[in-house]
Specification:
single chain; 476 residues; alpha/beta; eight-stranded mixed beta sheet; four-stranded antiparallel beta sheet
Length: 476
């Protein structure tokens, strides 16, 4: 949803109009739970107050319903604004027992004992001078350890002085966006479908996101060339959300595009370590180190709450980003950086990756098995990797708005692929009655994955049978 207009009032009216129209034409079906005001504000790059006001206005008009602590829902316009029975999780709660939304690792896998041991070691040896204001690029020991790790595991070509420690990938993208804006860039391409966070972060830096379609081989470089932009954000090793891996030919074409235009490719390697059927694909950065800014983090392998990430880029861009970071936050926590450096050098990080990979693969297998049992004919697409999968349900589960409303009534949180599109859906998608979902599974143990899938598909089936029976009675 694009929210444009002259100032806050104009954007507020545009948001209200967009939501109102989505409810009227059925894109937001009755019973659909809306994102929290915080989440939607971040996705759209607007203030939280603007979203709160829009929700309040549409609630007053009868399009939405809400209860304290239970979130905001689309009302049934045929039956009045009676809210559905809320599920057992609050609107801001992520990772609940029946939450199939993507993006969250299993926080219970955080290696508390090993991390605490790393902290004890560094606190016993860290010199006093290291506790002063840090280098905004990051602790030298950590940058050296990251350069070695990324070269060994991800094929990244970099010296330690090309590595910068950040507060997660979000800050890495913000720093790069601000640096590009300072160079005079005003537009940056993003994948479509793609991560809403990319668009929101770019907007916060003054850059307009230009959607470029993704096909079975990755981002269309031909479509990228037609935009005239000089920078692009991509997820080539495991495209989010479609799950495809960028083909060798497409990777080469993207590297050639960057060299020919003197452009910048921002590579988001958000889950590149997790490949279950073969060795992970190497980072795109290795093909064009002078034009690709590689970004990653410990959010999926350790925990997002650590706020530990990194970027690897050309020396001039890293220097510009470091200057911006200096004015932004004076650098990252020295003790957390030192602990991560110890964790990497000691081999504990590699052990953690192997542990997560083994468990996440079992959970993906559980998802596939549960779909085969409870939803015959369902298809799981994308490479066997990462923390999510694209699930396409047969047409008997459609249409999508009705399915999502039934899933919400069953207490299952899930997001459709259409949520991640900027442009109109491709021809045929959504018209065939099939339901396409982006399903996260990594944060749930196998038995919870199976339960959530059963609830997800059985609720809509019961609703469909009920509606069919009511139609048959009416026809007698």
């Amino acid at each position: 949803m694009l929210v444009e207009g002259g100032g806050g009032r104009g954007r507020g009216r545009a948001l209200q109009a967009g939501l109102r129209e989505a409810v009227r034409d059925g894109r937001l079906g009755a019973g659909t739970q809306l994102p929290s005001s915080r989440e939607l504000a971040a996705d759209l790059g607007v203030s939280r107050g603007l979203v709160t006001d829009a929700y309040a206005q549409l609630t007053a008009e009868g399009y939405l319903t809400s209860r304290q602590g239970a979130g905001t829902w689309v009302a049934d316009l045929r039956q009045g604004p009676e809210p559905p029975t809320p599920p057992a999780f609050a609107a801001d709660d992520r990772g609940g027992p029946d939450d199939l939304r993507p993006g969250l690792p299993d926080l219970a896998l955080f290696p508390r004992a090993a991390w605490s041991a790393a902290h004890r070691r560094v606190m016993a040896t860290l010199p006093h001078r290291a506790l002063g204001y840090p280098d905004p690029r990051g602790l030298p020991e950590l940058r050296a350890a990251l350069a070695a790790l990324l070269g060994r595991r991800r094929g990244v070509a970099a010296d330690p002085d090309q590595v910068m420690v950040t507060a997660g990938v979000a800050q890495a993208h913000t720093l790069v966006g601000l640096a590009l804006h300072a160079r005079g860039e005003r537009r940056t391409a993003v994948e479509d479908p793609g991560s809403p966070e990319h668009t929101a972060l770019l907007a916060a830096t003054g850059l307009t996101a230009v959607p470029v379609p993704v096909d079975g081989e990755g981002l269309s470089v031909t479509a990228l060339e037609a935009t005239g932009v000089r920078s692009v954000v991509v997820t080539p090793c495991h495209q989010f959300p479609s799950g495809v891996a960028c083909s060798a030919a497409r990777r080469a074409a993207l590297a050639d595009w960057a060299r020919d235009r003197g452009g910048v490719v921002v590579e988001d390697d958000y889950d590149g370590d997790f490949r279950y059927d073969r060795q992970p694909m190497g980072a795109l950065q290795g093909l064009a180190p002078g034009h690709v800014v590689y970004t990653g983090s410990a959010s999926k392998s350790l925990a997002p709450g650590l706020r530990l990430g990194w970027l690897v880029g050309p020396r001039d861009l890293v220097a510009e980003a470091a200057q911006i970071k200096r004015t932004m936050d004076l650098g990252h926590s020295v003790t957390e950086q030192a602990a991560l450096a110890d964790f990497l050098v000691s081999g504990a990080y590699d052990r953690q990756l192997r542990r997560c990979q083994r468990l996440y693969r079992a959970r993906r297998d559980a998802l596939v098995a549960a779909l085969s049992r409870h939803a015959p004919g369902a298809e799981v697409s994308g490479i066997a990797a990462g923390l999510h999968a694209i699930v396409t349900l047969p047409e008997r589960y459609g249409p999508e708005p009705r399915f999502l409303a039934a899933a919400a009534r069953a207490g299952v949180a899930v997001r459709p692929l259409s949520d991640y599109r900027t442009a109109a859906r491709p021809a045929g998608e959504g018209d065939d009655g099939r339901v396409r979902l982006v399903v996260g599974y990594a944060h749930l143990p196998p038995e919870a994955v199976a339960r959530a899938v059963r609830l997800l598909v059985q609720g809509p089936v019961r609703d469909a049978r009920r509606l069919s029976g009511e139609a048959g009675e009416a026809g007698r």
